[in-house]
């Protein structure tokens, strides 16, 4: 049996994905499920967008406290809609773009609100080439989301897989982009802003031979962006 849910809002995407306060529109559990169903249907209606026959989505997130809860709502909806899900864990937005291509996925879903305050969150969507969707694609997805029927029972089944090597893959990719670069004798100060780059940045610069001094380098959903480009004062004192 299907039920139609009337929505007062008819707009999801802003200048950089979907953003809001978790628990409020558009990041309510119901809307997150609708978004996942809409993305699944979008892939079904556009088979040319899928690198493989069965849709496969990879989900990454930054360190915000609400990220795991949003992730779980999306996973449940995707899996019940016959979409396999890969979970990268904590990753940067560019990192997820790399992993979309690495794992041959149909779409990438990044749970992040970038430089916004820690209590905000959002969703950014990448195509199979790791590129952000264009405005026409976003509009097509919005039309599906706001006009679809919401199933009261699962439409199908799939699986979710937690990737064990996503950290290694991203570090290797970053190092490969500057292959041959030797930073021996160079001192680098890093402010990781308690964000998703924290597990990667020191490792990459160390591999290149640099002497690294870092602050705010422990991932923290409570303190994300309390530093970094938003607040560079501590970095200036190093």
CATH superfamily of the largest domain, by name, is Alpha-D-Glucose-1,6-Bisphosphate, subunit A, domain 3
Number of distinct beta strands:
10
Low-confidence region ranges: 1-8
The CATH architecture term of the largest domain is: 3-Layer(aba) Sandwich
How are strands sequenced across the largest beta sheet? 2-6-5-3-4-8
Explain how this protein is built.
- By secondary structure, this protein is of the alpha/beta class.
- The protein folds into 2 domains: 167 residues, Alpha-D-Glucose-1,6-Bisphosphate, Chain A, domain 3, CATH 3.40.120; 60 residues, Alpha-D-Glucose-1,6-Bisphosphate, subunit A, domain 3 (Alpha-D-Glucose-1,6-Bisphosphate, Chain A, domain 3), CATH 3.40.120.
- It is 34% helix and 18% strand.
- The protein contains 7 helices and 10 strands.
- Helix 2 links the parallel strand 3 and strand 4.
- Helix 1 crosses helix 2.
- It is globular.
């Amino acid at each position: 049996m299907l039920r139609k849910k009337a929505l007062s809002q008819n707009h999801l995407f802003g200048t950089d994905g979907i953003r809001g306060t978790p628990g409020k529109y558009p990041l309510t559990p119901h809307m997150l499920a609708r978004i996942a169903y809409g993305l699944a249907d979008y892939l079904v209606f556009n088979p040319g967008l899928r690198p493989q026959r069965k849709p496969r989505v990879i989900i990454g997130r930054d360190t915000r406290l609400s990220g795991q809860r949003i992730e779980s709502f999306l996973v449940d909806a995707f899996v019940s809609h016959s979409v396999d899900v890969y979970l990268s864990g904590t990753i940067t937005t560019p990192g997820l773009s790399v992993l979309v291509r690495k794992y041959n996925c149909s779409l990438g879903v990044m749970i992040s609100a970038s430089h916004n305050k820690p209590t905000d969150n959002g969703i950014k969507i990448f195509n199979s080439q790791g590129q952000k969707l264009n405005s026409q694609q976003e509009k097509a997805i919005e039309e599906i989301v706001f006009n679809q029927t919401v199933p009261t029972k699962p439409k199908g089944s799939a699986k979710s897989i937690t990737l064990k090597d996503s950290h290694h893959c991203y570090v290797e990719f970053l190092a490969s982009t500057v292959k041959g670069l030797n930073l021996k004798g160079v001192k680098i100060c890093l402010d990781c802003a308690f964000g998703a780059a924290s597990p990667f940045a020191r490792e990459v610069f160390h591999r290149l031979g640099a002497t690294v001094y870092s602050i705010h380098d422990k991932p923290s959903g409570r303190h994300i962006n309390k530093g970094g480009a938003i607040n560079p004062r501590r970095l200036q004192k190093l």
